[in-house]
Specification:
This protein is of the alpha+beta class. It folds into two domains: 23-229, 2-Layer Sandwich (Cytochrome Bc1 Complex, Chain A, domain 1), CATH 3.30.830.10; 252-434, Metalloenzyme, LuxS/M16 peptidase-like (Cytochrome Bc1 Complex, Chain A, domain 1). The chain contains 16 helices and eleven strands. The strands form two sheets. Strands 1-2-6-3-5-4 form a six-stranded mixed sheet, with helices on both faces. The protein has a five-stranded mixed sheet with strand order 7-11-8-10-9, with helices on both faces. Helix 1 packs parallel to helix 13, helix 10 (278-291) crosses helix 16 and helix 12 crosses helix 16 (411-421). It is globular and about 65 Å long. One of its GO terms (biological process) is proteolysis. It comes from Flavobacterium humi. Residues 36-176 form the Peptidase M16 N-terminal domain. One of its GO terms (molecular function) is metal ion binding. Belongs to the peptidase M16 family.
């Protein structure tokens, strides 16, 4: 009884925190189609200015991959009014920091400044959109930067090409079949005019969302947003091409050789539905049951109890059009990738045939409450969540309501979704092994 009361108290406490953290916001459009979201929080003298563009790796051509990620670098080169090499100097000289990141679906830029520098931040982001300098010097410079990033993070990293190996085997027609960083030979072959055309097509106000979050005066912010972003011309609306993959009805088997490893890795992947679906959120919960922390089913069984693996895990890689549910493990001693997969399959069958216990269900709910609180615990996190909720889900208020979806997921749904997506004939089994000749794939 005492444990039950403690569990109940923890759940109520987390629920209270989650409710108290409701994110207030205001949203509107400029005449040029730029969507603007304002979130005021005066708890600290900090303001985040961010712009998310609806362009990612999936918007590239098969022979020109890596463009979206390349622009994440290229658009820090400078503008008509910000000299080359001065962007970061201006930010740091004014007490700020900034960064950017790219996915298959979108590209995101942001600055964090003391709140008295909001006008500067808005001017800089409007400059990036209105007056970017895209010339051969910048392209050549950033080409070398991206190549070095690829060498460090992927080519020379043990198991660095797992995502590439999975994607190219799991997707046959969708652009998700290539990686965000792309292929260097594609960037080498591209002409300056191709980079300029990419910018003109995707970096337009009606393909973006601007978020201002933190300590600021809304009326003043609106005036600055109008002054700096209002004059930017609306672009030709981006028409997204639809790609539909045929269902996987027979297991796909593939091999990838990695010259940087000595231990083979078990990799098992299922293609899953869009992040916009309820099923994707159920799969998030299934991932948590199987591999979230040392008390999860797979870790406890395979690593702790049976000592069959050095590491084992699973995660639901959610995206706008499709997702990937990836399971992986490193066998230990005389164990093999096949023996690890057998253990994984046993746990999946349990999820498909048995309801998880009420205790495990409550633990799961508590975990997701905690994750929700943490994701909105900083102004930076709130800014990105607001942008993603609008751009990828079409609903800004999802930042407040998504936790209710997770709360409403039942034990029965967990069992049914496991039955629906996690079957042996619906997956990729990848043998990720040491390279025999130490040659790069």
């Amino acid at each position: 009884m005492k444990k039950s009361l403690m569990t109940l108290s923890a759940a109520l406490l987390l629920g209270g925190i989650a409710s108290a953290q409701k994110v207030a916001f205001e949203e509107y459009n400029l005449d040029n189609g730029l969507h603007v979201i304002l979130h005021q929080d005066k708890s600290a003298p900090v303001v985040v200015t961010s712009v998310m563009y609806h362009v990612g790796a999936k918007d590239e051509q098969p022979n020109r991959t890596g463009f979206a990620h390349f622009f994440e670098h290229l658009l820090f080169e400078g503008t008509d009014n910000i000299a080359r090499g001065e962007w970061f100097k201006i930010v740091t000289a004014n007490g700020g920091n900034n960064n950017a990141n790219t996915s298959d679906d979108r590209t995101y830029y942001y600055e964090v400044f003391p709140s008295n520098n909001l006008q500067l931040a808005l001017w800089m982001e409007s400059e990036r959109l209105m007056h970017p300098v895209i010339n051969q010097i910048g392209v050549d410079t950033q080409n070398e930067v991206v190549k070095e990033e690829k060498r460090l993070r992927i080519d020379n990293q043990p198991y660095g090409n797992i995502l590439k190996a999975v994607k190219q085997n799991l997707f046959k027609v969708h652009p998700y079949r290539w990686t965000t960083i792309g292929e260097m030979e594609h960037l080498d072959a591209a002409k300056l005019e191709e980079f300029q055309a990419f910018n003109k097509k995707f970096y337009i106000p009606n393909n973006a969302v601007l978020v201002v979050a933190g300590d600021f005066d809304p009326a003043q912010a609106k005036e600055w947003v109008k002054n700096y972003f209002g004059p930017i011309q609306k672009g030709t609306p981006v028409v997204k091409q639809k790609f539909e993959e045929a269902p996987i009805t027979q297991a796909i088997k593939a091999t990838w050789e990695d010259p940087n490893i000595q231990i083979p890795m078990m990799v098992c992947t299922y293609r899953t539905p869009s992040m916009k679906t309820r099923d994707a959120k159920v799969l998030d919960m299934i991932s948590s049951i199987l591999s979230d922390g040392k008390s999860s089913r797979l870790y406890k069984k395979v690593v702790d109890d049976k000592k069959m693996a050095l590491q084992i895990g699973a995660f639901n890689y959610t995206q706008e059009d499709y997702g990937m549910y990836i399971l992986y493990g490193l066998p230990m001693g005389s164990n093999t990738t096949e023996s690890l997969l057998k253990e994984v399959d046993e746990e999946i069958v349990k999820l498909q045939t048995e309801l998880i216990s009420e205790k495990d269900y409550q633990k799961l709910q508590n975990n997701f409450e905690s994750q929700y609180v943490n994701s909105n615990a900083s102004i930076e996190g709130i800014a990105e969540n607001l942008a993603s909720s609008y751009l990828l889900h079409g609903d800004v208020n999802l930042i407040n309501t998504e936790i209710d979806i997770y709360r409403s997921i039942t034990r029965e749904e967990i069992r049914e979704v496991a039955k629906k997506y996690l079957n042996p004939n619906q997956r990729l089994i990848l043998d990720y092994v040491p390279a025999k000749d130490k040659a790069q794939n």
